[in-house]
Design brief:
The complex is a heterodimer.
Chain A (H helix, E strand, L loop, with lengths): L4 E10 L2 E2 L1 H10 L5 E2 L12 E3 L6 H4 L2 H5 L3 H17 L11 E7 L4 H10 L12 H4 L4 H10 L5 E5 L4 H14 L4 E8 L4 H8 L26 E2 L1 E9 H6 L7 E10 L11 H12 L8 E3 L6 H15 L5 E3 L12 H15 L1 E2 L14 E2 L5 E2 L4 E8 L3 E8 L3
Helix pairs in contact in A: 4-7, 8-13, 11-12
Chain B lengths: L4 E10 L2 E2 L1 H10 L5 E2 L12 E2 L13 H25 L10 E6 L5 H11 L17 H5 L3 H10 L5 E4 L5 H14 L5 E8 L4 H9 L29 E9 H6 L6 E10 L12 H14 L8 E3 L6 H15 L8 E2 L2 H4 L6 H15 L1 E2 L22 E2 L4 E8 L3 E8 L7
Parallel strand pairs in B: 5-6, 5-7, 10-11, 10-14
Antiparallel strand pairs in B: 1-2, 1-8, 1-9, 3-4, 7-8, 9-15, 12-13, 14-15
Helix pairs in contact in B: 2-5, 6-12, 9-10
Classes of the chains: A alpha/beta, B alpha/beta.
């Protein structure tokens, strides 16, 4: 990957905060933001804790017309895109219309909107659906709405890969920049806290059924018992570095230096999962050695088996306790397709401030051999960060971010 | 030196054409596969016509357990992928880690999700779903990324894999993404295409609500009428097309049959409306120009334009306008046809199915017709190859897609010249 794609703006809406400042302050403290599900009655579900975004009123961000035609996922995404563009300080009209685009990750689509429409279908099957039903829940909706709202007339796209696709979206943004685009809004935002999406996630058997918000999601801990699901995500303004410098962009948070994705062998093959290979390929793509990496943001699936596999992938690449590893998401849950982009934001801010946020509440299994940052955030010079993500069905993705001089 | 990417295997599952041979037979004879919906009672709906596939999973070697887990769209994808793999002959030399999968889809596993919703809500009697009745395959259907996983498992791929969910341009964009991955040396072989199975009550109702689909319910076999004055909406279709894409030298070194080179691709967005189209067609024209630029072709080099041609009032004008903008005078000379007149509009997968049609047009030097075109509508003044296929030399083809969200994509396919460097 060329040195060309830099991140110049961040938009983040997560359980730990909406906007960079609140998000980062909460993340550095390691404050646990997991709580009982309030967005629907979860009493019929075995998993009843969530990472919810509190106090987001779409009407404060969007015109009524747009609120009516969108799922919560899209409302959050539109707000995140607004933040990301404002933060970058770019004047969009100075970027040629066909050289500005958008790439978002998606797990499923607008689930709550879909659920409401599925409910309306009559017994005979001829229900009268909303005029927005044909586009409010399809997986490309966030990219479509972001392009319409911000007049992004270049390439648009949506990538699905469960929890992993957020990194692929940023990798794709890097590709688009290399291919001649000047600005791409990229990342992912998801909102699975409705009973329909909840039931779907629950059916994987991977959600924690713990009742204690401090103990329900403990990746790399001996007490790991699955993950807590959350909502939110992040979108970033990705620009061609030369163009960003030429316009005097005030912050170059970091460079998208390398990306790779792999798929696990078919279950039962007995062969090594693909995560280590994805990480190694992303490092090679960035022209880095493992020794260059200052921190790894783990996928942190939170089941004993998945944690052990990830620890093996990391230690095979970096050696035992060879690199600081962290998973601040333990405080907010896994945000489906929005989670990995939030990790990217965390990595960029760690780079900016020289502080690696901790993995709250966790006491790592010693035999994993990880230097897991626990307790308090750690002060360190972060010039290169590796972000890992995995998704249902064997998806693995890795993204390398490097500081910009 | 830049890595070039060629198509060496084709698999198609389309209405009226299960497999490449039957598919091409339908298109080249100008027959239609649209009919009154049989999969459910369509009488409550405004639009009651669709292009359905008569598909029995067991007949394609899928066991009941696999079939249930996959759902209809993934089944289509896997069957088409197997055909493409067999056609290419690459299976014996496949290196799993250098082989990836990209599948496109617009709607994902919508049929399975609706079925799950019904059983979990006691046929919609409960206000909320009961998680205790969730089928074991629910999450596989919830996330369309499972389409790529299923295809990867079927062909033995472990390289870069993704699902491109760009609505109705997903098929073109998925193949284009696979091409990018080979060009950048992330893979040598990609199995790529798209699948969709949207013919369900909920999707019919959603398109009824925006009056996007046809009401020619009394004439189902001629209901899809791209560019015709009597067109009044698209006919929903379903299906999959999957390709084996290879780096040129990889294909050559094993003596593979090369169908075509993927020479150029571009996508642009209208940024205008989620369902409407800006009548000027500027962004589609821009996508066409950029795709031709990447292919280093002049508009005059195009022998055939495989149109989106959905048969909505707006699209066919939008598209005609875009060709005039992008191709200039050549827009009036080059044949432009819509295979949706025969197989309907299979949403995200149709872009891949239309790449298959384009490749086969080059293979046979025959341009498929626009069926049901008798009286071109006002403003539709190009050569749409009405009703009868045309034999002609076909070495370079443009295929385009346009979809909700405002997405516009264009791809240029060329005959691969074996003597070229």
């Amino acid at each position: 990957m060329s040195a060309g794609a830099v991140i110049t703006g961040i938009g983040v809406l997560a359980p730990s905060g909406t906007g960079v400042k609140e998000f980062w302050d909460t993340t550095l403290i390691g404050k646990n933001m997991i709580g009982p599900v309030t967005r629907f009655d979860a009493s019929a579900h075995q998993a009843r804790l969530a990472g919810e975004i509190r106090g987001f009123d779409p009407a404060e961000h969007l015109p009524v017309r747009l609120v009516r035609q969108t799922d919560r996922m899209t409302q959050l995404a539109l707000a995140a895109a607004d933040q990301a563009l404002a933060d970058s300080g770019v004047r969009l009209e100075t970027v040629p219309a066909h050289q500005r685009g958008v790439v978002t990750a998606v797990a499923s689509g607008g689930s709550e909107f879909a659920q409401n429409e599925l409910r309306k279908m009559g017994g005979a099957g001829g229900g009268h659906l909303s005029a927005y039903a044909s586009f409010a829940w399809f997986p490309a909706v966030n990219s479509g709405q972001i392009s319409v709202r911000n007049d992004l007339r270049g390439p648009a796209g949506a990538l699905a890969g469960d929890h992993a696709a957020g990194l692929d979206a940023l990798g794709q943004a890097g590709r688009r920049i290399r291919g001649g685009a000047r600005l791409i809004v990229a990342g992912g935002v998801d909102a699975p806290v409705c009973s329909w999406a909840w039931a779907a996630h629950l059916s994987t058997g991977l959600l924690s059924t713990g009742r204690d918000p401090e103990r329900a999601y403990l990746p790399f801990d001996a007490a790991a018992r699955g993950h807590v699901l959350g909502e939110g995500g992040a979108l970033m303004t990705v620009e061609d570095e030369t163009a960003a410098r030429a316009r005097g962009a005030h912050t170059l948070y970091g460079r998208i230096a390398g990306h790779a994705s792999t798929l696990d062998p078919r279950p039962g093959s007995g062969r090594e999962p693909g995560l280590r290979r994805a990480a190694a390929l992303a490092l090679a793509d960035a022209g880095c050695r493992p020794a260059d990496v200052d921190v790894v943001f783990a996928d942190a699936a939170g089941t004993p088996r998945a944690d052990r596999e990830e620890a093996e992938a990391i230690t095979r690449l970096f050696g035992l306790r060879g690199v600081p590893v962290t998973a601040p998401k333990a405080a907010i849950g896994r945000l489906s397709s929005g989670g990995a982009p939030v990790d990217v934001v965390t990595a960029l801010l760690a780079m900016r401030d020289g502080r690696i946020p901790a993995t709250p509440q966790v006491e790592p299994v010693l035999t994993y051999g990880l230097d897991l940052v626990t307790g308090r955030s750690r002060t360190a010079s972060v010039r290169t960060a590796l972000v890992l993500a995995r998704g249902h069905g064997g998806f693995n993705a890795a993204l390398v971010l490097r500081a910009v001089d | 030196m830049a890595r070039r990417v060629v198509i060496t295997g084709v698999g198609v599952l389309a209405p009226g054409g299960l497999g490449v041979r039957d598919f091409w037979s339908l298109l080249s004879q100008g027959r239609t596969a649209t009919r009154r919906i049989t999969r459910f009672d369509p009488s409550p709906f405004r639009s009651q016509v669709a292009a359905e596939i008569d598909f029995v999973p067991a007949a394609h070697g899928l066991d009941p357990q696999e079939s249930e887990r996959m759902g209809r769209a993934a089944q289509f994808g896997v069957v088409a992928a197997r055909e493409a793999l067999a056609d290419s002959g690459v299976a014996q030399t496949l290196a799993p880690q250098r082989t990836g999968v990209v599948m496109g889809t617009a709607g994902g596993a919508v049929a399975g999700l609706d079925a799950a919703y019904r059983s979990m809500s006691d046929e919609r009697r409960l206000a909320d779903v009961d998680p205790a009745h969730a089928p074991p395959w629910l999450y596989d259907h919830f996330v369309p990324s499972s389409f790529a996983t299923e295809v990867a498992w079927a062909v033995g791929a472990e390289g870069p894999s993704a699902v491109i969910a760009n609505g109705c341009t997903a098929g073109i964009d998925a193949v284009a993404h696979a091409v990018e991955l080979i060009r950048e040396n992330s893979a040598d072989v990609m199995v790529a295409g798209a699948t969709d199975a949207p013919i369900t009550p909920v999707v019919m109702a959603a398109f009824d609500a925006v009056r996007a689909t046809t009401t020619h319910n009394d004439e189902p076999t001629t209901a899809s009428r791209p560019f015709d004055d009597s067109r009044d909406g698209f006919v929903l279709g379903e299906g999959a097309a999957v390709f084996v894409l290879e780096e040129l030298h990889h294909a050559r070194s094993r003596g593979a049959h090369v169908y075509a080179e993927v020479a150029g691709h571009a996508s642009r967005s209208n940024a205008f409306h989620m369902t409407g189209l800006h009548p000027e067609g500027r962004e589609l024209a821009e996508a066409v120009r950029a795709a031709l630029h990447e292919a280093r072709l002049d508009p005059r080099d195009l022998d055939y334009v495989n149109a989106h041609g959905s048969g909505t009032k707006l699209n066919d004008l939008h598209e005609t306008q875009a060709y005039k903008l992008a191709l200039g005078e050549h827009a009036h000379r080059v044949p432009v046809s819509s295979v949706k007149s025969m197989i309907g509009h299979a949403m995200g997968s149709v872009g891949a199915i239309e790449i298959a049609a384009s490749v086969l047009a080059m293979e046979h030097h025959v341009v498929p017709p626009t069926a049901n075109l008798h009286v071109p509508g006002p403003g539709c003044d190009l050569d749409y190859v009405p009703r009868v296929a045309r034999e002609q030399r076909t070495d370079a083809v443009l295929t385009v897609g346009s979809g909700f969200g405002g997405f516009q994509s264009a791809m240029v396919l060329t005959r691969h010249d074996r003597s070229a460097p």
